[in-house]
Amino acid sequence: MRDAAFAVVMVLLVGCAQPVANPPAPDLKAQIDANEAAWAAAANRGDAAAIAAMYTETATMLPPGMEIQKGRAAIEQTLTHMGAGGMKNLTLQAVDVVQVGPDTAREIGRVTADVPGPRKKPVSVAGKYVVIWKQVRGKWLLDTDIWNMNK
Asked: According to the 3-state scheme, what is the secondary structure of 18-33?
């Protein structure tokens, strides 16, 4: 009887076990941080082509106040337009990076920048973003990118 009770308990425990999330690669956060630093550096020098190259071929960008942008060409055009607005001193900070699949990661982060305000005087702005990264041929590329400003 005791063996049967033990077997029932074991079956229940195994049945209730939660699946283990994919553990992140040991250097995933470091790779994402490096990618974000390269993205910000390219943005600060106005290099929309270099930024667009950091996205998958079929990436989706969801910029605030604009339509969905699909694919590298549309993303590059959007970034060119945004860069022409005079944004400077962009910084990106990954707050949380989680590997959600063997070739997929999710990042939540913060963004700050200086943008032209009234009378073209620089105004500091802050926001947040979510990025889905895909690993393509060993490189982590942005696949989905959405952000909005705090104010």
From this structure: CCCCCCCCCCHHHHHH
Instruction: Round to the nearest angstrom and report the end-to-end CA distance of the chain.
Output: 66
pTM value? 0.81
d(CA 37, CA 41): 6
Helix (H) or strand (E) holding 118: none
CATH of 23-149, one of 3.10.450.50, 3.30.420.270, 3.30.540.10, 3.40.50.620: 3.10.450.50
Residue among 57, 56, 150 nearest 111 (CA): 150
Contacting residues for 139 by C-beta, under 8 A, at least 6 apart: none
Helix, strand, or coil (residue 64): coil
Confidence of residue 26 (pLDDT cuts 50, 70, 90): low
